[in-house]
Design a protein that fits this description.
The chain is an alpha+beta fold. The chain folds into 2 domains: 3-69; 119-316, Porin (Beta Barrel). It contains 4 helices and 8 strands. It has helices spanning 3-41, 43-87, 93-110, 205-211; strands spanning 122-132, 159-172, 183-198, 221-235, 242-257, 266-281, 284-295, 306-316. An 8-stranded antiparallel barrel has the order 1-2-3-4-5-6-7-8. The N and C termini lie far apart (140 Å). Mean pLDDT is 74; it is low at 27-32, 34-52, 113-117 and 142-152.
Length: 317
């Protein structure tokens, strides 16, 4: 291509570009006028369409906001419940059982359970003074004659001393549900009672001379008795150091020596008693009691009715 041709082509291109630049604004202005005229001819339609679109968009937005708000409220409620659950301590079933046992033990203690270290059972050792209502009687008096008679009535004296021991076994802590802090025990006890001694045991010298029998021996005759008793005992103020008690009635069996004129040695009867003990140190107790001994009947002329009073030392176990 020649330089002239190139020059002509460049001029043509420049003219086309200038024409396009000139026509474009006018076309845009003409299009704007047409659109303006369109808007004036149908204003109602455009407004309604815009409002409808805006209303539809607004409803859709509100629905989304409501949905989000309900979800947020549900999440907040769930968070609150989780916080409340995490705030409560988890109770293990074993822990609940232990707590229940603790409550039961507390209720039992409030009903008069003894303090820690107290004992329900006791072994005790007792001694003191005894007094028989009547002299022993019922046996020949080996000390001599009275008014020349070969026989002299009763032997022994009213007074006596005794010692013995026994056991208390706990049975019930509340008098079988009738009285709190009142203990029921079973007492097993024995004691030895000595009323006196007689120097010339056997037949009197007058009988020996009349019958030609050997002279009376010089052995000592000890007038005594052994008592075995089983009794219910009611003891008050369980758990305290001071414990008064009483025996409403108990069974007692007395073995006498020397025997009666009919060679009888056993005399059944009853026993009633009252006393109190005090815890002096740990499981060591000191107490005092008084008891009445009542036989059912005279034992072939021997009467064992009487009273004993003295003290005792007890060991709890």
């Amino acid at each position: 291509m020649t330089s002239k041709a190139k020059l002509a082509l460049g001029v043509t291109t420049a003219l086309v570009a200038f024409a396009a630049a000139t026509v474009a604004p006018e076309a845009a202005a003409h299009a704007g006028k047409k659109a303006h005229k369109h808007a004036k001819k149908a204003p109602t339609y455009s407004t309604v369409e815009t409002h409808s679109s805006s209303f539809s968009h607004s409803n859709s937005s509100n629905a989304k906001v409501d949905a989000l708000e309900s979800q947020l409220q549900a999440m907040q409620s769930e968070i609150r419940s989780l916080r409340a659950a995490s705030g409560r301590a988890h109770i293990d079933p074993d822990t609940a059982k232990v707590q229940e046992l603790d409550q039961w033990m507390t209720s039992v203690k409030s009903e008069g359970t003894p303090s820690k270290g107290s004992k329900d059972n006791m072994v005790f050792f007792r001694g003191g003074y005894g007094y028989n209502v009547d002299k022993r009687g019922g046996t020949l008096d080996p000390t001599g004659t009275t008014g020349g008679a070969p026989f002299a009535g009763a032997i022994g004296d009213h007074g006596a001393w005794y010692f013995g021991a026994g056991f208390d076994f706990g049975i019930n802590d509340n008098l079988f549900g009738m009285m709190q802090g009142t203990e029921v025990l079973a007492e097993l006890m024995f004691d030895y009672k000595q009323l006196g001694e007689k120097k010339r045991n056997g037949l009197t010298p007058a009988i020996n001379a009349a019958t030609g029998l050997p002279a009376a021996n010089a052995q000592t005759a000890t007038v005594n008795a052994l008592s075995l008793a089983a009794s219910p005992k009611i003891k008050f103020f369980k758990g305290s150091n001071f414990r008064p008690w009483l025996i409403p009635a108990g069974f007692e069996l007395t073995v006498i020596s020397p025997p009666s004129d009919a060679i009888t040695v056993l005399n059944p009867g009853m026993m009633f008693g009252a006393g109190a003990d005090y815890k002096i140190w740990k499981d060591i107790y000191a107490g005092a009691d008084v008891r009445w001994h009542q036989s059912f009947d005279n034992l072939d002329g021997v009467n064992t009715n009487g009273v004993t009073a003295g003290g005792y030392l007890g060991l709890g176990f």
